[in-house]
Design brief:
The protein is of the alpha/beta class. The chain has helices spanning 3-8, 33-46, 60-72, 94-108, 147-159, 173-182, 201-209, 232-241, 245-255, 267-274, 281-290, 301-304, and strands spanning 11-13, 20-22, 24-27, 50-52, 82-87, 115-118, 166-169, 189-193, 213-217, 259-262. Helices cover 39% and strands 13% of the residues. The protein has an 8-stranded parallel barrel, surrounded by 5 helices. Helix 2 (33-46) links the parallel strand 3 and strand 4. Helix 2 packs parallel to helix 10, helix 4 crosses helix 5 and helix 8 (232-241) packs across helix 9 (245-255). The longest helix has 15 residues, at 94-108.
Amino acid sequence: MSALDTFRHTRIPLAHGTGAIPAVGFGTLIPDREKGRAAIKTALEVGFLHLDAAEAYRNEDIVGDVIKEAIDNGVVRREDLFVTTKLWNNNHRPERVKPALEASLRRLQVDYADAYLIHTPFAFAPGDDQYPKDADGGPLYDKGITLLDTWRAMENLVDEGLARAIGLSDVKLDAVKEIVANARIKPAIVQVESHPYLPEWELLEFCKANGIVLLAFAPLGHGMEPSLHDDPVLKAIGERIGETPAHVALAWALQRGTAFLTTSTNPAHIRENFEISPLPPEALQEIRDGITTTNIRLNDVVHTGLPGFIPRENRK
């Protein structure tokens, strides 16, 4: 395996779980089911080995079909794949956690999840409605349950072999600290929005100190403004080394010690997002010193539990 292949296939060992997570992952939040099917198929073919799914995306069945087809056709082996999925907010009650994962596993057509994450720290009213609403049309929260209550049920999933690692998502540092301080099985992964405009340095340092992998979503800014593709620091580095600003941002994410997820339905972009190469060491410091606007959050999910990147028409 060449040095470039080694970089792209970086795996980060899970201190609080089984195995190691591929640092370069593919997110499956693609509302159009047929475009999603094609994109996930392409991702596996170009070399992605980490697929990030969720009950809330309402397409785990598509992900499962593609996984089964890829395994049957010899494109990938199950033992080489890392499959992540997530517990949605209406299933935070402890008695609902295991059935929710079992339902996800059936849709994904796998016997276990490599990682199962609490999608957000917000508990919604339990039931079949993923987005229960209060009288004012806002989220109907379940105030009778704590994040730690849900975490205890997550730990049982590891004991039973249904999940090889568990973690948190869309969460702030204080909540991570609370779970780490009280957990029997500590989080293996914390998935949050992170990119050069929201580097989450404090959270990253806490995760490193506690053996937790920080998994970044929207590492390219999700195509939103301000655009990382137009950032002068990333553009200057890219021009100097013959790479795009997107490549620079993704390599930065990997070299600073995080795993990351990209999503695209464009086959060329899917390949480009996988075929990254390392930056010279001075470029990492240049990004840290040169990009001074570092508090731009594109997804407000950490404040409400409502995932901003899921289209409203899919929130029913």
